[in-house]
Amino acid sequence: MIIAIDGPAASGKGTLAKRLAAHYGFRHLDSGLLYRGVAKAVLDVGKLADDRAAAIAAAKSFDPARYDEAVLKSDDVAKAASFVAAIPEVRAELVAFQRAFAQSKPGAVIDGRDIGTVIAPEAEVKIFVTASAEERARRRVAELQGRGETPDPAGVLADILKRDERDAGRAVAPLKQAPDAHLLDTTHLAIDPAVRAAIDIVEAVRAGRRPA
Ligand code: C5P
Question: What's residue 208's pLDDT?
Fold first, then answer.
């Protein structure tokens, strides 16, 4: 079984995907890490993230095990990732890895922006996770504060809005809800009820019911 979880930056889709995978004993792939890995490799050779040739070269020699997840989770890498992710050749290089992962047994949960639309349109369950930009920024600020950082809330919100705009506005595989995806708005949901709601969606699909 394939569960595709898409949604904008800091919507909580990563945590939801991880928890769903643990619940069902499925493998989990955070596809954002692939784009972040390519972006980091570009930055590491001293190039800018919108350098097409450098990004395509980095994608061609992409090694998913090259960087620790912690290194890839910075906001600078996230921003750079949204530039390399708009380059069609970069996306094309990363498709095979994701499609192979989607075939994992007994199942796979993959989160990203285009999983239900491009990578695994055949996924049995598609969930589009969203939350208001203000709530997503609030969560991100709390996360950074938890790491001892002192972020500027207005700057965090502005970065999230800019990244949403780049992800939804690009020509190739833009962020958008698949027509057959179930919308899960977590603006007013803490993580546990959000996970519950996601499990309810999966269970309803498995039982052949329409989710509530
Ligand atoms: O999900 P995450 O915030 O880690 O993604 C980082 C960036 O990678 C996104 O802003 C987006 O530009 C890109 N991405 C993508 N397609 C995916 C996953 C991530 O374009 N499936």
Answer: 87
